[in-house]
Amino acid sequence: MPNAQIPVLKKNRTKKRTSRKIAILLILLFIVLLAVLFFRSSLSRVSEIRFDGNVFSTREQLLNRSGLAVGDQYFGVSPSGVSEKLRGIQSIQQVTVDKQFPGVISVHIKEFATVAYELQSDGSLRAILANGSSVGVGSSGIAVEKPILTKWKSDDPYKAKLCDALSSIPGEWTADISEIIPAPIPSFPDRIKMYTRSQFEVITTVSLLSSKMSYLNQVLETEEPGLITMLKADSYVPFKPDTSEEGQEKDTTQ
């Protein structure tokens, strides 16, 4: 009779289901075993840490701030966490962290540009960055084409604004400026004096500096050393008066 075959079919299905469950359990146990072996092996550890782009921060400082160390769990390193910690260093503008399996952590650092240097009371120089922060020069050396800031107070609000203005000006336009000092007056609280390597003296303000640089460079390239004033109006007066008619025509206020 056909009904007599039904129990046999049920037994076969039960055996197949049992075999399938055993196979799944064995696969899971195998995966767990592999995971345990992997995380206990050197392949799961940080084997090398690379930094590039850092000038004002040493490798030791970066390691201490980031918390990175050879031997750490590779998959436990958070690129965003490392980046956030390193951006706490005042000289660092941007951080990119790349993880390269197995075990290599590459940290690419972009620092704020050096816009000037500052003379300390002991005669040493500190680099002034685009964000207004001051860092030690150390073994990085100085860029001779950058101006030196003198007589500035550390809490002067116009100092940070000056650094921001200098960072927005092409380097070739500021290369001739050797020194910048504050020279405020009631009508121009952000007034400054600048001295150039070509023997010019320049009077302007922090807020006008960026917009006046084209006029300044025009005078530096075409005229003899003199006093350049760049306030509401621009003027140039040579230090050595020129008695010729052509020289008198140049000594006019624009």
Structure write-up:
The chain is α/β, with parallel strands linked by helices and 254 residues long. Helix content is 33%, strand content 26%. The chain is built from seven helices and twelve strands. It has helices spanning 6-39, 59-66, 79-86, 157-167, 171-174, 209-222, 245-250, and strands at 48-52, 92-100, 104-111, 114-119, 125-129, 134-136, 148-149, 177-182, 191-196, 201-205, 226-230, 234-238. A nine-stranded mixed sheet has the order 6-5-4-7-8-9-10-11-12. Strands 1-3-2 form a three-stranded mixed sheet, covered by helices on one side. The longest helix has 34 residues, at 6-39. The protein starts with 5 loop residues before the first helix and ends with a helix.
Percentage beta strand: 25-35%
Give the CA-CA distance, first to last residue: 119 Å
Mean pLDDT: 85
SS-derived structural category = alpha/beta
**Coarse morphology:** rod-shaped
The residue fraction in helices comes out at 25-40%
Oligomer: single chain
| Low-confidence segments | 249-254
Rounded radius of gyration (Å): 34 Å
Largest sheet: 9 strands, mixed
Strand arrangement in the largest pleated sheet: 6-5-4-7-8-9-10-11-12
Quick tags:
254 residues, 3-stranded mixed β-sheet, rod-shaped, alpha/beta
Summary of the model, kept short:
With 254 residues, this protein is α/β, with parallel strands linked by helices. It is built from seven helices and twelve strands. Strands 6-5-4-7-8-9-10-11-12 form a nine-stranded mixed sheet. A three-stranded mixed sheet has the order 1-3-2, with helices on one face.
